[in-house]
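Hi everyone, sorry if this is the wrong subforum. Our group has a chain we'd like a structural model of before ordering constructs, and none of us has done structure prediction before. Sequence below.
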Amino acid sequence: MSNGSSTTTPVSLSHASAQHAAVTRKKVKIQRFKKKDLIHLFRGLASMLKAQINTSDALKYYGHGLPNKAMASTLEQIRFDTESGMSIHEAFRRTGRFDDMTIGLIQAGGDSGQLNRAFRELADRLKADLYFRKQIRKAVLLPGIVIAVLIGAFIVSQVKIVPQVEGMLEQVRQKPDGLTAIAFKVSHATRVLWPFVVLGVMVMGALIWRSEGVRNTITSIAMSKWRLLSQLVMSLRQMTFLSTMELLYSNGINLSKSMRVAANSVKTTPLYPEIRHAADQYEHSGVPLSLAFSKFTSVDEQVVHMMSIGERSASIDNQLKMLADMYEEEAENYMNDFTQVLNFLVLLMAVSLIAAVFIGTFLPIFLMGPKMMQSGI
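Answer:
Right subforum, don't worry. Here is the predicted structure as tokens:
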């Protein structure tokens, strides 16, 4: 009995330890690197590979002395895996810190012997994406802060200042009339409703922040009502997808796989399932690429037309490049127009809120001033 228990106990402990380690790995969420850090990484690797430095040494040189210790450790793990015989893209995938689009392009570069070009194009792709994200934040963040501050000022005036004015009139036994009565009624309603409105805005903000479905629904509704916003969003989505697909296809990945991997660049949008379905139809049903785009996605007719030309002339890579450049230019133009319109709307709303604060706070004083003076006499 003692021999049996001594034999099974280490095994059971080992099994329990393995299960615990597996659970621990699942609980630990691996964070991906910032895009700015990835741009520097891919540029550095591309320049060293172009200078005929082998991949292992390039990873070692870039990671040596790197301030970002997590990235340095990741690069060391990738170098160890590649020296052990693992392919470069599988070594990157194993870290869990890189998305499918990045892995797909690294695989394409490795298979075609143009890994330096793959890293360079990844850096350029991330730089463009980072630029447009900054533009969107710049267009939305500052106006949002201005509107929030002005709404806060309006609430304070209606909850704190207007009731004091109303109390002064009650002390001199003057009854509000006309615009003064309306202003006081607005103040009464604001005092009752503002906590619920603010709580509702906070809940909605949390839902938008946390729920991809809510974001897509709100974006779809806004796009259906505002043509400029629809053009901007679709240009950004199509530029992102087409440029990624061109990078993959020009580096030796077949069309269907290029579509599937490139779809990951718009994974949080309704375009993602459409492109995946179109790729399946193109690969398994034998439909032409242009027809797959036309029937199963919501891309512009221009994309379908140029894909048809690319199929007939065997120049799909050139057409993808042309379309990506075209939508990048369009996105910049739409972004400028969107920013100007948004600035005008913010100015209009700011003037309206300032006017509301002024009317609600000072107009009753101006209108009731003579009556207060008469009552004092």
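For your construct planning: Residues 1-27 have pLDDT under 50 and may be disordered. The radius of gyration is 30 Å.
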